[in-house]
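Ligand-bound model needed. heme C.
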Amino acid sequence: MRNSVAVLALAVALCPGLAQAQAGDNTVKKIEEYRQALVDGNPAELWEARGEDLWKRKRGPKQVSLEACDLGLGAGVIKGAYAVLPRYFADADRVMDLESRLVHCMMTLQGMSRADATRRPFGNGTERSDMEALVAFITAESKGVVMNVPQRHAKEREAYALGKQIFFFRGGPHDFSCATCHSEGGKRIRLQDLPNLTETKDAQRAYTSWPAYRVSQGELRSMQWRLFDCFRQQRFPALEFTSEASVALTMFLARNANGAPFAAPAIKR
Ligand code: HEC
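Prediction:
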């Protein structure tokens, strides 16, 4: 666990300075330096530890652990599993990302209702999310593994095509699509660099750096959360957790990151 708590205090202390920093190349450099400084003691480790405990603990009406959950590489295999997700699962006859697969395992193995399994998908500062902890634990087991999301099954190809369509679909009060904010290099909103997600390098870096511990929120955030929040920025209706649309969009982004080593849980401002 190293000095996570001390690092957390440091991060909080650094935050106001960051908010006041002027936009410009200097800011980007500062944020990068600050990321580097925190990289050896990411508070995400606290979520990982809690997630490991949740994975192993007997829970739900059936009082069994998740250790027999098949994330795609065989029952209980966690190492490298995230680097090949989303993918098609024959037992559910659909494409699933990590979260929808975990919900599936909570329902089938542990006997939870869907409502219980999807309760509080994202933490809110005072109440932590079990789902985000599980995601932190499992994704950490793919650190360094090269992304290799499959397009073998017809439903995997369908999900990719649907995700691509959603990415370029314009609508809402501002007539925005994801591409409006994410298809040009060098764009920035306030202090934040906007990755060009249609360009391989940016797409790889963006996808492989989630989940991330968000210093500004004191929370670990998953890719499902990232997409939920970008739907909000786009003034679209709320993206339903583990919905077909969220999985398809994840498939599009994850597949476009193929070839890059997975590098999360990361740390972000
Ligand atoms: C109104 C502009 C806007 C729209 C539209 C938008 N985003 Fe974003 N997106 C952002 C901003 C701003 C950030 C950076 C947020 C931050 O750093 O806090 C971001 C970050 C991201 C990231 C993480 C990048 C990284 O390197 O960490 C991903 C992935 C992403 N958006 C995907 C999407 C997808 C998919 C859509 C369409 C559903 C979308 N965005 C729509 C503004 C937008």
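The CA atoms of residues 48 and 136 lie 5 Å apart.
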